[in-house]
């Protein structure tokens, strides 16, 4: 399963922080939305490509995932059954990165219900 401490790429963190400034949606909640948007789009992470996690916002997995923890971990295990815990964390971060563009243009919390 996912490690206890997780983080993202710095560029993704910056986008999530900008979203928070515009809407008040915290980065962890925005990351959850972005993750599921990415899964819905059919994105698949390729662990053979180098994916560096460079962010400084390191949070425990319960903070990142909240009540979606079990579903998130099950989805990742189903999509990537052969991946190690570290690779699953990179896959999660890649999904968040992939899903972030679909939500980063939100200017108000009400706009979230329209996407």
Automatic annotation (TrEMBL):
<dbReference type="InterPro" id="IPR014969">
    <property type="entry name" value="DNA_S_DndE"/>
</dbReference>
<protein>
    <recommendedName>
        <fullName>DNA sulfur modification protein DndE</fullName>
    </recommendedName>
</protein>
<dbReference type="InterPro" id="IPR038472">
    <property type="entry name" value="DndE_sf"/>
</dbReference>
<dbReference type="Pfam" id="PF08870">
    <property type="entry name" value="DndE"/>
</dbReference>
